[in-house]
Amino acid sequence: MVEGLQPAAHPHEPGENDLEKLKKWQEARLERKLRGEYESAVFNLAELVNQNLETPLSVAGVRVDGATNTRKSFLGWLIRPWLTRHTGNQAGNSNNLQGVLYTARGISHILQETDLFHSVDAKIQRSRDHLAKDGDVDIILNTREKGRLYIKTATEFGNNEGSVSVTGRVRNVFGGAELLEGHYSAGTKTRRSFQGLFSLPLSPSLRTRGQLSLFNMERDLSSFASCSESSHGFKATINSDWGTQGVHEVAYQVVLRHINNLAPNASVSIRTDAGQTIKSSISHSWTKDTRDDKITASRGYYGKLFQELAGLSGDVSFYKAEVESQISRRFVPGLSLSFAARSGFMKTLAGRGHFSDRFQLGGPLSLRSFKANSMGPRDGVDSLGGDIYWSTGISLISDIPRKAHWPVKAHIFVNTGRLDVMDATKGLSENIIECLRRPSVSAGIGLMYRFDPVRVEVNFGVPLVASQSDGMRRGFQVGIGMDFL
Amino acid sequence: MDSFFDRTPFLKFLNKFPLYTYPAITVPQCHSQGPTLWIAPPRASDDQTTNSGILSTDVECLKWQAYIALRGLTDIAVRWDISPEGGIDGRLPCLHVPAIGDISLELLAPRAISRWVDGRTGNWNDQLNGYRDSSLKDESTAWVSLLEGVVHTALTLSQESSQPAFCQILKTAVARGRALGVTLSPPPAPLTGLSSVLPPFGTNITLSSIQGQYAEAITSLSERLGTDRWFLASENPTALDALAFAYLHGLLHSQDSTRIEVTRHVNLVAWEQRVRTQVEAAFTDA
Questions:
Q1: What positions does the domain Bacterial surface antigen (D15) occupy (chain A) (predicted)?
Q2: pLDDT tens across B240-276, in order?
């Protein structure tokens, strides 16, 4: 080779003897170069866009390609509010490039929210309409729809029972993001359950959904009430997400309950409630959840208020209210404090209360170191449930030393609570005071394991103070579920 | 050497808890303090002057109501808001006996009610069960078979025909009581025959097919009663009287020819009326 005409070597370039290393170095260099060019192009594009945000532009039309299974009327229903917002702006400050980009992003986002599409790619191009003026653009959305059929089988553990299940789902049944789902499961405590559900969006923002469901469930309650319970029901729900103000749900349900399969030693109180009853009720719940993690929260709070009024028809008539809250705070890295409280009361409006409607308390998900559903009034071997209850729990949760990345945490807990029967001769405030006066208390330590989507706890605890009728669990107790006290 | 895993000290430690115990949370008593008979619901009655709304529409429950009343016990409460599934073995009637002294609350199945009544009346040693002699006691068995056979079938068919079809479909096997197939001899044929692809189910029997047997049974009953105060000329009421009253009361409240057959016999109607007054007076609404 002629002297002086050899290519200059890069100072970090490996020598020619190591070909493998040389090849990798060249590939990395090319990738850096392409990345640099890409970032430069994006930067230039962003600069170009930012400098032209005020350029007068207006959306003339929106086209959605690839949504063959989705009704045009439904797509129009979703998109129309965005166009109205864009064109109807009185100050005129959205009829520019910024407004067009905002509208395109909003429409793309709402289509993703329908959960009907794998991908939604938005493009803006000059309008092809013959009557289009200068500055009129079309938004073109190229979509790829998800499959409509979905079947899943699963083995699940949660709320202290195990089950196997089959779920079938049909998405976009009538082309309007409707969902039809059937779920069947068989388990240890819920022996059989079936749910058929049909849901559809009720508002173009997709924040409000309506649901109709039929359900059928058989539960074995013999561990605490010497009977089994089967339920067959229908429920109509409207669920609305108000963003920072929480989620509201209003529902009507009618349920045929059947207390059956009584054990020979079933108490008179359970026998009195045996047989079939119909409950017809309306309910409202409000939920707000700002926790960073639903399972092992270290920040944020959770609040829920639930009310139910039964007696529109049917055999039972009552008013029930429940409130639940949880707050978590991390005060040093690796250590957080969680406080939870639940309370509820039920007022029978006509006739007598029924076992199926009363509250139950106790268990690894409720008051730890007490047997599941074993607190409160008792008749013989049967736990009857109560009309008024409260429970609180404080847990100090800590990472395992030097293993902060592990899904296992340690915790120390103190739980208190009481389940009682309302005295009809006294007022509500007197009943509340009476219920607060004699709490059952438990304390202990344990490990919690994050096993998405549930939490598993293994605790060692003891009841410190209890009523004679409470079912106690001294020593080790295992809990699997999602909502712990 | 004690091992860390020696359970005895560990259990001793756990047994120290709870450190303090409150009294048990009691269940409010919302039922009568005296004996209470759980029965199937009675017939709705507009007559406020009598206690006629207290007699069960179910023959089995009414039989035991009559038995308790005719044995001289009074002020027994009845309640009919409990489903048959709440009874012992999923059936009614049941007798709920409250705690007395050291004896705790007890729920008695029908087979234990007669023993309880004997205990209350002090009548443990009557080998003849109230009949005059052993031949009448044997004869009572035949009358019981007649009542629980043809008469029971006729009453059941009459009650079923007066109900809407969907009510019959919703009735559980428990609610229907004994299957018709075991009350008659010979048992009736099933609804499906040998040539049917369906497996044998149901019973192929109508009221008209047993009308003759039923009429004969009622006539026999009337003749045997005659002008006696109690069946088989007993001095005091017996279990047969309770059973006969239960069936006659049910038949007299039916809506078809079964009622007419009974009303043809004046002595049966008068007897039923007299016994009904006595039975109604023995019970109070819980």
A1: 172-484
A2: 999 999 999 999 998 888 899 999 999 999 999 999 9
- Considering only CB atoms, A272 lies closest to which of B14, B17, B82, namely B82
Least CB–CB distance from B21: residue in A378, A466, A475? A466
Min Cα separation B96/chain A (Å): 9
Q: Is the ipTM of this complex over 0.90?
A: no
CB spacing of B85 vs A420 below 8 angstroms: no
Residue A305 is assigned to a structural domain of this protein: yes
CATH number attached to the domain at B134-285: 1.20.1050.10
Say if residue B186 is preceded by a cis peptide, omega within 30 of 0: yes
Before B93, cis peptide (omega within 30)?
yes
Q: Which residues of B touch A (CB under 8 A)?
A: 14-15, 17-28, 30-31, 81-88, 90, 96, 105, 107
Tally of structural domains, chain A: 2
Number of H helices, E strands in chain A: 6, 21
A235 and A139: one domain? no
- From the list B279, B181, B266, B197, the residue with the least C-alpha distance to B237 is B279
Is the residue at A35 inside a domain? no
Of B18, B83, B96, the CB nearest to A466: B18
Stated pTM of the model: 0.81
Residue A389 lies in a domain: yes
Q: Determine the distance in angstroms separating the CA of A267 from the nearest CA of chain B, rounded to an integer.
A: 9
A111-168 pLDDT, tens digit per residue, is 999 999 999 999 998 888 888 788 888 999 999 999 889 898 988 776 667 888 899 9
- The residue ranges of every structural domain in chain B are 36-121, 134-285
Query: CA dist A386 to A435, B79, B151, Å?
Result: 11, 24, 48
Q: Do B85 and A259 touch (CB under 8 A)?
A: yes
| Domain ranges, residue A94 | 58-127+134-145
The enclosing domain of A89 has a CATH number of: 3.10.20.310
Which residues in chain A touch residue B26, judged by CB atoms under 8 angstroms apart? 377
Residue of B nearest to A469 (CA): B24
Q: What is the mean pLDDT of the segment spanning A350-376?
A: 92
